[in-house]
Specification:
With 804 residues, this protein is mainly β. The chain has eight helices and 39 strands.
């Protein structure tokens, strides 16, 4: 497949479409993000075509669906949902039955796969046909379509419905605590900039609003090319590119509300963007503001998924500003990108602590919370890029420098429940400076090989503090009123430095065969300052280690539409949270083996097939990943347990266009895993639900109902299966860290409808159309009712967007 030089002008029309598709002494020195994570684990554990001005090509927007509904036991809310669906689909059934004889382009559902979609996840633009891993690309149009049925504007919840291998999170603020690809951790990038922080916060996907995104590239399976964190996969978010030609504008508004508590939980979003180009200068600026009201489950009861009952999406406000300014002088390209996202919660509700004394039931929420400083997340990122398509030795050069600042105020926490002495609230701050250099050098010999080589460097400074609250006021109010007693540093400040060099080669010895292999060497050093607090003195300390990882694979074009691919890749993850605890919270004299702090290395083997026929696009892949040094932090003994782990699974995608104006398809995910118990190496037990999610099946049906109105309808479903292997291990006493509850199945249905209305597009969406009462797999294994959150009931959204 031919590569596309990024410095060259874009084609007059380009398509972006989806492809295949705590802790022992939890006092003032507690690392709050890791403590909360450990607490949850242990205690409760479409298509779019654009012209250069980026306006939609007529007749190429929207989605459609048709669904036959079998007999249902109807609640009031379900009846409402069915009526809505009937109103939408009756005309569509008629339109389907009367297919026109002549075939018009505007009457076709756009193909899911473009013939040569380029991705940047290999650190250089590469055709899909030569990628030797499972990849999913989510376009801007798909994001906008899915947000019609996702009022919380959660990137995680959108990707769950589109990407196989990706687990469902707990419906909190895009928390990475429960988010995995193939049962392992994910590296999150925004325009190639790593979002991982130290001290860790696990909120990386909440650093940007969907309105600023042009596309999302997901690599499923470990990858060494970007380094730390990508053991299960990589999510690279690409922000909107500068415009072409005269100024153009984009406006989008959307409102939503619960149908189980009408006129409650109303939410709204406003997005405004403009872009253009004048001679050598181009630009794209997008701003958004959103308000998310209360959330209600299928029975009309308030639900607030989020760590420690607050800190989720409910009752939050968000704003995001993204600007991208570029200058092009011949082959020299300079670009400056700024993105700032802030989310803060303002709620009067908190969980009723009496719920934990009841039999298994969903968390209850009561009014009366008095807390001046509620959870808040701010992320600011600035990056400067220089590119040249043919600099030296005909090499493509990309140089990037970046700065990122993150401040996170966590939910309040009563550490006395776990042996501590305070009622407090943690606050993390981290500042990162870094640079990335990618050079793609062709070698003028047979098979046209080329090498991508370069380096990465980042230096991250992190600090933690805590606000203390008056305990008598807190206790006297039943845990509702928080009165400040002061602020203290909760752990030493530390610096996390990472330096890496890498090289990856690609060679095409035969027209039907593409070979690729590479290596990455990375050195990590973590230093911690002197610290005094809570009667402890912790001297300055340091830890340093390195790791080398490899990858190799091939793509063989069996037939014109069918590719066979194989991939071996090593990924690694530096246990940032564990190191934070080890350096900051372990008293002097406590022995911690350096081996227990070494990066977790994963060997991933994957074999797959993908095909692109005229009316069918499909893929299937099987994989196994092994780690001889799995990670398990014991918050009760301040020790790190490392033990072998094995994870394996199967993924599949299917998209079909059986007749004109109809498209259907879906994804399948199966993942399972086992580990050796650290204190009994002769026993292997299932990995718990913190890592392994039940099988997941998604499906959709789209229909272009009225071509002249561009009226498209889509019904999509998500089935989450059951899993009890870990529960069995817990009940038998073999594994005390296993799941205390099993995971039960549920089935969700969404409806999305879009139609041309005046100069813009009107869209309508219903989330959880059948009003199913459920909890996500991660919340189902929670030990206490306080962390057993119900999912959202039926919620409707209406939006309008216009380009001008």
């Amino acid at each position: 497949m031919k590569r596309l030089e990024p410095g060259l002008p874009r084609p007059d029309a380009a398509c972006a479409m989806r492809m295949d598709s705590p802790h022992g002494e939890p006092d003032r020195t507690v690392n709050w993000s890791w403590l909360l994570l450990c607490y949850r684990q242990r205690v409760g554990p479409g298509a779019r075509c654009l012209f250069p001005n980026r306006r939609p090509v007529p007749g190429m927007k929207g989605s459609c669906a048709v669904m036959k509904m079998r007999r249902l036991t109807l609640t009031l809310n379900t009846r409402i949902a069915v009526v809505l669906a009937t109103v939408v689909f009756c005309p569509s059934l008629t339109g389907w039955a009367a297919e026109p004889e002549s075939r018009d382009v505007s009457e076709e559902i756009p193909l899911v796969n473009a013939p040569d979609v380029l991705i940047s996840a290999t650190r250089t633009p590469t055709s899909m046909g030569s990628v030797h891993q499972a990849v999913t690309i989510v376009s801007e149009e798909q994001l906008r379509q899915q947000l019609a049925a996702s009022p919380s504007r959660s990137i995680t919840q959108v990707l769950t419905k589109l990407v196989p291998g990706l687990s469902q999170n707990d419906q909190s603020m895009d928390s990475g605590t429960s988010l995995k690809i193939r049962g392992r951790s994910i590296a999150i990038l925004i325009d190639g900039v790593p979002q991982q922080s130290s001290p860790t916060t696990e909120l990386d996907l909440a650093h940007i609003d969907p309105s600023a995104i042009e596309r999302i590239e997901i690599i499923r399976g470990s990858t060494a090319i970007y380094g730390n964190g990508a053991m299960g996969g990589l999510i690279n978010i690409i922000t909107k590119q500068p415009g072409e030609g005269k100024p153009s504008f984009y406006t989008d508004v959307q409102g939503s509300g619960s149908l189980t508590r009408v006129l409650r939980g109303l939410s709204g979003t406003v997005v405004q963007g403009f872009q253009g180009k004048k001679d050598w200068f181009d630009y794209n600026i997008v701003g958004s503001f959103s308000h998310q009201g209360g959330m209600f489950d299928a029975e009309g009861s308030r639900t607030m998924p989020g760590t420690n009952t607050v800190g989720g999406f409910a009752d939050t406000k968000n704003y995001n500003i993204m600007s991208k300014l570029g200058a092009t002088f011949g082959d020299h390209r300079f670009q400056l990108t700024f993105n700032r996202k802030q989310s803060w919660q303002d709620t009067n509700y908190l969980v009723d602590p009496n719920v934990d004394a009841l039999p298994r039931t969903f968390a209850h929420y009561v009014p009366g919370l008095s807390l001046a400083d509620q959870p808040k997340l701010t992320n600011t990122q600035i990056s400067a890029d220089y590119t040249h398509p043919h600099l030296f030795l005909d090499s493509r050069v990309h140089l990037q420098g970046y700065y990122r600042a993150q401040q996170t105020r966590f939910p309040t926490f009563d550490s006395r429940l776990f042996g501590g002495t305070d009622v407090l609230q943690g606050y993390n701050q981290s500042d990162v400076l870094g640079t990335r250099l990618d050079i793609t050098t062709p070698i003028p010999v047979y098979g046209k090989p080329e090498i991508v080589w370069g380096m990465d460097f980042s230096s991250q400074h992190g600090a933690q503090s805590a606000t203390l609250y008056d305990q008598s006021t807190f206790d006297g109010s039943g845990g509702r009123v928080f009165s400040k007693n002061g602020e203290v540093a909760s752990s030493p400040s530390r610096v996390f430095n990472s330096t890496a060099v890498f090289a990856q080669g690609e060679w095409t010895p035969l027209a039907a065969l593409v070979l690729r292999g590479g290596v990455r060497y990375e050195r990590v050093k973590v230093t911690s300052s002197d610290f005094s607090g809570s009667g402890l003195f912790l001297p300055a300390s340091a830890i340093e280690f390195d790791t080398t990882v490899f990858n190799a694979g091939f793509v063989y074009h069996l037939l014109d539409p069918l590719d066979l691919f194989f991939n071996f890749s090593q990924g690694f993850n530096v246990p940032v949270g564990s190191i934070d605890n080890a350096l900051g919270n372990v008293p002097p004299g406590t022995a911690i083996s350096l081996q227990r702090l070494q990066p977790q290395r994963v060997n991933n083997y994957e074999l797959g097939l993908r095909g692109k026929w005229s009316k069918v696009q499909a893929s299937v892949s099987g994989y196994i990943s092994k780690s001889s040094l799995g990670l398990n932090f014991d918050q009760f003994t301040n020790s790190l347990r490392r033990a072998p782990q094995t994870i394996y699974g199967v993924e599949a995608t299917l998209d079909v266009q059986p007749i004109e104006r109809v498209r259907l398809g879906g994804t399948y995910t199966f993942v399972e895993g086992d580990q050796t118990i650290g204190f009994n190496p002769d026993v292997r037990v299932p990995l718990n639900g913190f890592s392994i999610a039940p099988q997941k099946i998604t499906a959709y049906l789209e229909h272009l109902t009225v071509p002249e109105w561009e009226w498209r309808n889509r019904v999509q479903v998500l089935y989450s299966g059951s899993r009890s292997r870990s529960l069995t291990a817990f009940n038998s006493g073999i594994d005390p860290t296993a799941d205390p509850f099993g995971q039960t199945e549920y089935f969700l249905v969404d409806l999305i409808s879009t139609v041309k209305a005046g100069p813009g597009t009107l869209r309508f969406g219903v989330e959880n159309l059948l009003n199913k009462q459920y909890a996500t797999p991660f919340n189902q294994i929670s030990f206490t009712n306080s962390f057993y959150f119900a999912g959202r009931g039926t919620t409707a959204s209406v939006g309008y967007s216009i380009y001008y």
